[in-house]
Structures are given as structure tokens and as C-alpha cells.
């Protein structure tokens, strides 16, 4: 149980390879060390784009020791093609390449 008093506003969802299992609009999505594991990242980003509100934020982090910066930049480019605005955030997440997206 979160201690910051946000339990009534935070919902943790364990996604599958076939679905993010999101219902209703969301304001924040954290994709931590996982997009490179998804068989169809385009589908994943498309389903995220369909569930979030304008102004919603997505933080993507990928492990530096397993995923190249070029691969992460390709993920960012794919995300921007699905209606997100984003930029690399070097040093934001320890041991990770990271980028932050905002739904436009």
C-alpha cells in the first residue's frame, strides 16, 4: 500500500504481451525496462495512445546494459509517430536510457 496518500488514485496493472489491460483514461504510464521485450512495440504504443488523456505522460526506461541508445531512439521515434511529443532524458533513471512522452 503506498504511503504517500495516493492509494485511491494509483492503479497498478500487470500487462500481458497481448494487452496493456487498461480500462478508462489514464494520466501516467510507466514502461520500465520492458518495451524491448514486446514482440510488437507499435501495437503497445498504439494501445497506450488510445487510453490516455491529452496531457497524459509516459515515462519509458530501458536498460543501458541490454538496449542500445539507437534502439531507444527508435522507440522514441515510434512513439512520436503515434501522437506523442517526447525527448530523451539522459541521466533521469539510473542505469537506463529514458525518454518522457506527453500526449498531444
The number of strands is: 4
Low-pLDDT stretches are none
Strands of the biggest beta sheet: in what spatial order?
A: 1-2-4-3
Tell me the Rg in angstroms.
14 Å
Element pattern in H and E: EHEHEE
What is the overall shape?
globular
Outline the structure in words.
The protein has 104 residues and is of the alpha+beta class. Helix content is 20%, strand content 31%. The protein contains 2 helices and 4 strands. It has helices spanning 41-49, 69-80; strands at residues 26-32, 52-63, 84-88, 96-103. A 4-stranded mixed β-sheet has the order 1-2-4-3, covered by helices on one side. Strand 3 and strand 4 form a beta hairpin. The protein is globular and about 35 Å long.
List the helices and strands and how they pair.
Elements: E1 26-32, H1 41-49, E2 52-63, H2 69-80, E3 84-88, E4 96-103
Parallel strand pairs: 1-2
Antiparallel strand pairs: 2-4, 3-4
Keywords:
alpha+beta, 20% helix, 104 residues, 4 strands
Kindly summarize this structure in a few lines.
With 104 residues, the protein is an alpha+beta fold. It is 20% helix and 31% strand.
Amino acid at each position: 500500500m503506498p504511503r504517500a496518500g495516493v492509494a485511491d488514485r494509483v492503479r497498478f496493472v500487470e500487462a500481458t504481451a497481448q494487452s496493456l489491460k487498461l480500462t478508462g483514461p489514464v494520466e501516467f504510464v510507466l514502461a520500465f525496462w520492458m518495451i524491448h521485450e514486446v514482440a510488437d512495440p507499435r501495437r503497445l504504443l498504439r494501445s497506450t495512445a488510445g487510453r490516455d488523456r491529452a496531457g497524459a505522460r509516459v515515462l519509458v526506461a530501458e536498460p543501458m546494459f541490454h538496449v542500445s541508445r539507437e534502439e531507444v531512439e527508435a522507440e522514441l521515434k515510434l512513439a512520436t509517430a503515434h501522437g506523442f511529443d517526447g525527448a530523451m532524458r539522459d541521466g533521469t533513471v539510473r542505469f537506463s536510457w529514458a525518454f518522457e512522452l506527453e500526449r498531444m
